[in-house]
Specification:
- The protein has 237 residues and is α+β, with helices and mostly antiparallel strands.
- It folds into 3 domains: 56 residues, Roll (Structural Genomics Hypothetical 15.5 Kd Protein In mrcA-pckA Intergenic Region, Chain A), CATH 3.10.290; 87 residues, Pseudouridine synthase I, catalytic domain, N-terminal subdomain (Alpha-Beta Plaits), CATH 3.30.70; 78 residues, Alpha-L RNA-binding motif (Alpha-Beta Plaits), CATH 3.30.70.1560.
- It has 7 helices and 15 strands.
- Strands 7, 8, 9, 10, 11, 12, 13, 14 and 15 form a 9-stranded mixed β-sheet that branches. It has a 4-stranded antiparallel β-sheet with strand order 3-2-5-6, with no helix packed on it. A two-stranded antiparallel sheet has the order 1-4.
- A hairpin with a 4-residue loop joins strand 11 and strand 12.
């Protein structure tokens, strides 16, 4: 069974800062199996030992996975000196775990973004070789014509690069024109550039699905929840 030093165990779980953890232990506020643990280097069995901080049990999680409905107006980054980032939507204890966004949505794009601290999971999901599909809904300034469906299927030129074939459909043909496009890669401004290639501008963009996992429509922009085990399995296959 995995064993960890008490101070690392608490740090990994995002309980408090390094110095706060030292203080909590020193003051006897941390217990292992109901015995005050004053030695930060004491070992904890992550599965079978019960660690409490101020009487509250700390449940060990190796990794965490969240589904965020990214709102417009904030950037997909872990930190920025001047700008609000998607991680600013999460509490300290989650941020301290070292979570990060999987992939990127533009500042003015909203919708499904996965936040995790599992590097391997993120790497697999982003791997260009895997071609994980992503479904976007776009409000357009004009209808690019039905021939855009064929052009997208064949691969449009987005400026010196031929995009991989993508599936385009229209949810609404006018007032406003709303399209859905499923892409299998994630180039910079991919969807906007694809529509520009067929003569339309994207006015609004929302990511609805990654792989087989849909954005939970009960999440308002800026809200998040943990992925279910089923969703996690769908994204890990
Ligand atoms: N394509 C874009 O152009 N922007 C995004 O945010 C995502 C995909």
């Amino acid at each position: 069974m995995p064993k960890l030093r008490l101070d690392k165990f608490l740090r990994d779980q995002g309980i408090a800062s390094r110095s706060e953890i030292r203080e909590l232990i020193k003051k006897g506020f941390v217990t292992i199996n109901d015995v005050a643990a004053r030695d930060p280097s004491a070992y904890v069995e992550t599965v079978s030992d019960t660690v409490r901080v101020n009487g509250e049990t700390v449940h060990y999680r190796e990794f965490v996975y969240y589904m965020l409905n990214k709102p417009k107006g904030i950037i997909t980054a872990t930190e920025d000196r001047n700008e609000k980032t998607v991680l600013d939507l999460f509490p300290e204890n989650v941020r301290r775990r070292g979570v990060f966004p999987v992939g990127r949505l533009d500042r003015d794009t909203e919708g499904l973004l996965i936040i995790t601290d599992d590097g391997l999971f993120a790497h697999n999901l982003l791997s260009p070789k895997k071609h994980v599909p992503k479904l976007y809904e776009a409000v357009l300034n004009r209808h690019p014509g039905e021939e855009a469906i064929k052009a997208f299927r064949e691969g449009v030129d987005i400026g010196g690069y031929i995009a991989l074939p993508a599936n385009l459909s229209f949810v609404s043909g006018s007032d406003p024109v709303i399209a859905r496009v499923e892409v299998y890669e994630g180039k910079f401004h991919q969807v906007k550039r694809m529509f520009r290639a067929v003569g339309a501008e994207v006015l609004e963009l929302k990511r609805l699905r990654i792989g087989d996992v849909w954005l939970d429509e009960s999440l308002e922009p800026g809200e998040y929840r943990e992925l279910t085990d089923e969703e996690l399995a769908l994204l890990s296959k």
